[in-house]
């Protein structure tokens, strides 16, 4: 208890104020604390005995606080005064009701990989899903129930060990719902669709604390909204998703390291290979990064590319022949069980994409085909920026190419996910934690790269996949340009979250219509 000394003092003073005299009806005691300093001890006392044993409530003084609030990116850090880790799903509704009675803002955190600027506006209680990681395979073995705190690594391994797979993100460090409520790209989307397409039923706690089940017959309007814009509507305590027999026991991978003189050939071959959205389903995910690798060059960014195929080497290498001919400086290939593929592609939980607590300046774009001219411009600007600021060799310019059949064969009107025509997902990232004075320069570069991607497809409007968005984009870029989508989402917000509690992750409803500048 020693670690609570500071907050205890403050809490006791408030507690005394509350317990004098006859108990007031709770609507008169609406704001017992100010948001400047939430009394952790008081919250422990009041909320602690309402929620189940094993739940944790702690503030900044506690030894668990640093790890519970660590984030992948320190670009936009929410102000977390108190962390509550519910032990049971039924606790979440009680926590939200308690927050509402006491005017405490709440913010759900699962794996802390959110990268959007909006979370910096938050000040209040973190509802931390870390203890809710249960997985149950249903008796008929066609689907499973997953609690709201599950993430890629445990889902992939648990199911594989039982003979099954399901849709997840590609990076195994991210949650299922952080990605899934906004779409959710992963290696099974070519076969089964995005994570959002696979949310059969959701147990949801609404903004007012009511716990409901959302499915095709119960709150179907919310099911539509939560498959693509779900972060705006509620807290998912668990969900049901289909599971499938795991298929090929081994996946083939092939990674290439190319020098920049091969850039045009690489992108021309990629366009032929993907053929504008006709990628073979088994060619689950390839992605490539312009980045620095001093084992190859001290001065020039390389083009690193990785392919993962659900099937044999023989089948995969037939498709990869054009890439084998280009001439890589280095390459490696092999065959491994599916759960090892994330590590090989750099997206495993211990891989180089996952470490947290760094400051990422990012931007994104959604493309249909690669524009070779634009890619050359983007590559050449790396030289410009790194000459100007040698610190900027922390850059990654990521190009993702999934197989897309399972995404494009769904009716786009059936869910809030708006970008089924984007066959490629782009992500720019430069890390600046060691030289924060270069933040604005990094931002200028991120925006410039995004603009070059978008200028490369003048016939299309700019899209920013909501989970890669940095929060500076207009709302249409995140939720779709068709006016009916936003109208429908705004109506549903008015119905289910009229006070806009869920507004810290690329909100549909914003306080003003100006674009943010961070
Ligand atoms: C290293 C890295 C890899 C990534 N890989 C992929 C990928 O492979 N595929 C992909 O599609 N995206 C990917 N993304 C983007 C990713 O979808 C988002 O960053 C996502 O928000 C991360 O979810 P999280 O649980 O890790 O983060 P958190 O910050 O914990 O959650 C993000 C937001 O999701 C909401 N949320 C989380 N859990 C719940 C819940 N139970 N109920 C309601 N709302 C909830 C909250 O609004 C929260 O602010 C990646 C991002 C990073 C940084
Ligand atoms: C939807 O949820 C309701 C309420 O829990 C339930 O009665 C119904 O069986 C569910 N429908 C489906 C298709 O699962
Ligand atoms: C790609 O396909 C879409 C239709 O899905 C079409 O509108 C577009 O013109 C095609 N692009 C190219 C470069 O062929
Ligand atoms: C994050 O990094 C900062 C320095 O950049 C350090 O002070 C802090 O302790 C780190 N936090 C965690 C949780 O590692
Ligand atoms: C490719 O990008 C260049 C540079 O932005 C642009 O001028 C050109 O029109 C684009 N090509 C196509 C086919 O869109
Ligand atoms: C909570 O909100 C939902 C959706 O607006 C509504 O149906 C329900 O009656 C509300 N519950 C309470 C207790 O007000
Ligand atoms: C913001 O945009 C909405 C929808 O486009 C519009 O109805 C509203 O009037 C705008 N508000 C301001 C302050 O411009």
From TrEMBL:
Transmembrane segments: none annotated. Coiled coil: none annotated. Pfam families: BBE (PF08031), FAD_binding_4 (PF01565). Keywords: FAD, Flavoprotein, Oxidoreductase, Signal. Residues 75-246 form the FAD-binding PCMH-type domain. One of its GO terms (molecular function) is oxidoreductase activity. Residues 1-21 form the signal peptide. SUPFAM superfamilies: FAD-binding/transporter-associated domain-like. Belongs to the oxygen-dependent FAD-linked oxidoreductase family. This is FAD-binding domain-containing protein.
